[in-house]
Amino acid sequence: MDKNSVIGFILIAAIFIGFSVFQSNQARKQAELQAQLDSVSRVEAIERQLAEAERAGVALGDSAAAVPGTPAPIYKDSSLEAASRVEGSVVTLENSKLVVQINTKGAQPYAVHVKDYKNYDSTDLYLFKPGQAEYSVSVYAGEYIRTRDFNFEVAERTDSSVVLRLPFAGGGCIEQSYVLHADSYRVDNLLSFKGMQAVIPRNVSVFDLDFDVTMPRMEKGYKNETQYSKLDYYFEGDKKPVEIGRGRNASRRVDSKLSWMAFQQQFFSAILRAPQQFASGELAVNFFPQDDPERNLMACSAKMRLDLPAGADGSVPFEFYFGPNHFKTLKEQGHKYEKIIPLGGWLVGWFTRYAIIPMFDFFHRFISSFGLIILLMTLVIKLVVFPLTYKSYASSAKMSALKPEIDKINAKFPHTDNQQEMMKKQQATMDLYKRAGVSPMGGCLPTLLTFPILWAMFRFFPASIELRQQPFLWCKDLSAYDAIVDFGGRVPLIGDHISLFALLMALTMWLYSKMTMANQPAANDPSAASMRFMSVWMMPIMMFFICNNLSAALSYYYLLSQLIAIVQTWAIRKSINKDAILEKVRASAGKPVPKSKWQQRLEEAQKMQEQMQREQAKKRK
Questions:
Q1: How many other C-beta atoms can be found within 10 angstroms of the C-beta atom of residue 208?
Q2: 277, 259 contact by CB (below 8 A)
Q3: CB neighbourhood size of 390 (10 A)
Q4: Stated pTM of the model
Q5: Which residues pair with 254 in a beta bridge?
């Protein structure tokens, strides 16, 4: 046998042996996986039997020997079997801000009471009530287990901490420890697998964690509360979290590592963070209907997967935040939790963070009335943007002075269906504005620059927990609507009430539009009439429908803004000499005036149109 043949036989043998080892490992893994699946199926089947036994009147705590027909043991591990049949008890952790109840059955948060706040009906505020949360670890330890099914032993306990253990008959234990920090909304949780190397197979490298919470309603208005409630999740290093929900049922599968998720009600949140990050997960939020008899708001769930810690005594840390969506409080946590507060996009959000919030906090240091604070903020904002809006107000005032001359132009070109005549009318109007030194478009850009401020206020007030349950005048809660009429049932578009601040805001907007349009030159074309109708009637009505269900603080701010605009417009009109403007226009009549680029383009367009009309007339002849 030559050398090449020997090498060939050796390679063939190596491939055969390698393939046999590979197949053996695959068969072993498949067998373990099948055993895990069988264990899951067995647990589910026995749970169904237990449920049937409970319905038949058999207590879970009764022994198998005492009650004929009781299901056979569920778990192979005798310690787990015993722990599964013990009823849980509640351990309470408390500081100046929170009361956190931990259920030994599953070693999981059972209820969270936020002490400094109340629900709208003055009852105690719970982020989740007793039994409305589940926090469970699932892992394969010779058989598939879920910690929610077992009662943990209390190993250590103080007023602000507790250590709970679930021992295994084969040695080792799963340990859950909770620490509530002093004067804080933060709870640290450390999950430990101690001495579990003989229980958990070496090829098991992950475990699952389920965190489910049912949040109750806490605010007056269901629509406003759901609109600002959602689920957020954050990838380490991103500028802001991703949000789903916002009043609508939603779910999302995440196949990459993420740092934390937040179950966010309008003003309060339950946040779970994994410093070592979650490997992947499935997130969902579902909203309850307004007429839910239990007055629940939403059901949030996070089914996460994490890497199992290596070594005999591995641990995985977690952090909970149970508290208000207060910007500074969230920011102090240091993990960009404050980004869950909806302050708008980059421009609006920047303005809110660095201008609105500091100004709000500054006034609050000296003034306790939030109605007065909003008034002062409105005055400051109006003064700051006045240089931008002055040109718009002045342009409007000057145009109102030209009304007699505009009426003459309208009389000279009365036919709105004649394109050539309409072009001449526009040219004459622009010539008039030029001689008067008025730019009809000059005030538009400054006004547009103030829109980010209006939008910032639209986002800021409904999300500000400082305004929650703060009274002003007839309003009992500036963060909710101020109903003066309750219909007792839902009316299309309006809802079940009429908000007084929203109504006053709409009436003031109508008055301001009426005031600005009344002195404007009247145009006899349909587009001008349509614009006038939109400004005077449609916008106030639309704003009423929008603001009727939103926070009273927002409607109050818009009301003040309109009132100040009315005063500014009146003052500017008084300062402008209408006779001087008319005298200037009449003195320049017949004299050439420099033409703007817009006028030049308008004349060119007119000439082209006239030429086309002449050519069409020739063709018809």
A1: 16
A2: yes
A3: 14
A4: 0.75
A5: 281
